[in-house]
Prior knowledge:
Helix content: 40-55%
Amino acid sequence: VVATIVAAALCCCCCCCGACAWRLRKYQQQQPLGFKSKISTVTGKYYPEIEALRFNFYPAVDGQRSDTLLVSFAGAALQVGGFPKQEFRKSLAAFNCDQVYCMDPQQSFYLDAPRQCHGKRWEGYTALETRLRDECRHYRSVVFIGCSMGGSAVVLFSHLATVALAFNPLVDLDVEKARPRFFFWLRNKFIPAKVRSDFKRNIHNNIGLNRRRGCRVVVHYSALREDMRHIDTLPTDKDTGCELVFHKECPHHNTAQFLKRRGQLAGVIGGAVRWASDHPDMHHGVSPAHINAVLDSKESSEAKP
């Protein structure tokens, strides 16, 4: 009897292992980039074809720059072996503006370092902020757009934008760490506590810096309880906080898709682009410390009798 039970258990284990191996092989064939990104996340292996997709620039007209730059941040890939994709391509195609598409292959909320950082970990914020600042400094106005994890990047780097347009940004990584999404959000399970804390602090500081420059941070969010938990942690002060737009009829996380199906997304994006074009700002390529110094000096001079 014992031998029969052991044999049955071994048979079940073999079947399960075979099924898992078959599924992994299937995902490897269907989603080769997604499969490699997971391997890269776990082992640190460098794949040039993945890193090449992290930051892509598309000019509206070859050889010259437009007045406005549109920057889209990709969210996560919600499937095992999935890979993030460039988002809002069709929506942004309606505007004759230069465009940048960012994605995070490690799905680490743009916090894990790109492989060219020579092995340093959790330097992703600094690396991407530097690259965005170098690009944004060439434009009179800049619009950031992103949904979910991409929305998190929008508010995280909002100090570089004229208008930061986020849909359901995930801003409390302690909440996300506890959610059962290991296969979907592989890297966020390993973000250190200090990095999570710095992430939240940078979001608050950078939103405040955006607002001090007279720019805008607009956040659209759904009626989903998990989304509202994140939104409740954002600053909402009239002068230094976000503009919140609540969509009570949206019962799921993808607010951008909800608005698109209602024919409203194009108007929301168009309004952001028009406002940015009408309110040019020349501080996109300047460091936060310099911006603060300029604004402090300006406020001091205005306060003098």
